[in-house]
Amino acid sequence: MKFDPAKYHRRSVRLLDYDYTQSGAYFITICTKERECLFGEVIDGEMWLSKIGTVVGECWKAIPDHFPHVVLDGFVVMPNHIHGILMIYAEGRGTACRAPTTERFSRPVAHSLPTAIRSFKAAVTRRVNELQGTSSTPVWQRNYYEHVIRNEEELHSLRQYTVDNPLKWALDQENPALRKPLTHGQK
Hints:
Blueprint: H1 5-8, E1 24-31, E2 40-43, E3 46-49, H2 51-61, H3 63-66, E4 70-77, E5 81-88, H4 113-132, E6 145-149, H5 152-164
Antiparallel strand pairs: 1-5, 1-6, 2-3, 4-5
Helix pairs in contact: 2-4
């Protein structure tokens, strides 16, 4: 059967023509599959990690071990999602040495943000499945949200947002306790 890109194309949420290998700061949000609260719970504004939540934190801290051009900044594990700030330092890269900017047919692009996130998600999933004695239980939703941080003011604001996230969990739209049950006829 011949590959039909029109039929099997997945819309990318990445910025079109943006070079995700270039130096910059990025705010990342990744949610669990079906927004299931796997990583722990917030009690009195403080996040208490489950074993799985601890694995997530360990894998996040290990990103620079596998991607030396990445520096970690603010980070928080929430019951069903994470927020983190990554800094990419790509010496010698940029407009003069353009690299492919997005993954093509599931092939990672060296030194790119998507490749680092993909590796992180895979490492967490592998370790969680080992912990639970399962072989292919999904942990993450497909894809992730990223925001290119454009200045120091934005960086400061997102660092504060990350720190404050557990304190505001009772109001967070990701909090399952705030989701309204479906009424008859809704899907």
